[in-house]
Amino acid sequence: MIEGRTFLGTWPRRLSGLFDVGVSFADQRILDVGCNMGIVGYEVCKQGPAYYHGVELLETHCQIARSIFTAVPVESVFHDFDVTDASVRNEVLSEDYDVVLYLAVHHHLVKKRGKAPAEETARDLFRRCRRSLIFRGDDFDAFAELADAAGFEQGPVIKDPLLHPFCAYTRRP
Fold first, then answer.
1. Where do the Methyltransferase type domain residues begin and end (predicted)?
2. Rounded to two decimals, what is the model's pTM?
């Protein structure tokens, strides 16, 4: 474990609800923002996506994810950088992901980088997303406004009594 870093719950608990939001990962291009050590991505890749791109602030976590993904038969790439840095985002991220995973990241960006950079990051992620953005967080009202402005509609919220709820936002036709 990295000194001073913890997370709430077990991996199964953190995954609970992710596959209940009505989004198929099969044959999709996936962006996982805040991929941590790749455990969620590993489980997503069992669904057969065409491509998986994990981004994470901590280099150590990306190294662990790369190691885990040597055994995953899905094309994958990992980058460690601050996702609020627009110039690096533009250099590293593709313009066309089918599904974006944005799980328990947004509230950290608001707290550590400020509301404006966090919202700009979310708007950019919606722009890069062709189909569905799966959000896990605590401020659904504010995030729903960002989603609506980007042309996405909110699906059902999957709640957990201990962790932040999940929700999929789907691009309007």
1. 31-131
2. 0.92
Residues 85-138 have pLDDT tens digits of 999 999 999 999 999 999 999 999 999 999 999 999 999 999 999 999 999 988
**Tokens coding 4:** 């001073």
pLDDT of residue 160: 76
Give 55's strand partners. Answer: 33, 79
What is the chain's percent helix, strand, coil content, to nearest 5?
40, 25, 35
Q: Do the bridges between strand 51-56 and strand 75-80 make them parallel or antiparallel, or are there none, so unpaired?
A: parallel
Q: What is the pLDDT of residue 9?
A: 61
CA dist 5 and 58 (Å) reads 11
Can you say whether the dihedral through the CA atoms of 54, 33, 30, 116 is positive or negative? negative
Cite the DSSP H helix spans in 51-168.
Answer: 59-69, 86-92, 106-113, 115-128, 140-149
Task: Sketch out the chain's domains with CATH numbers.
Answer: 11-171 (3.40.50.150)
Q: Which residues on neighbouring strands pair with residue 53, listed in sequence order?
A: 31, 77
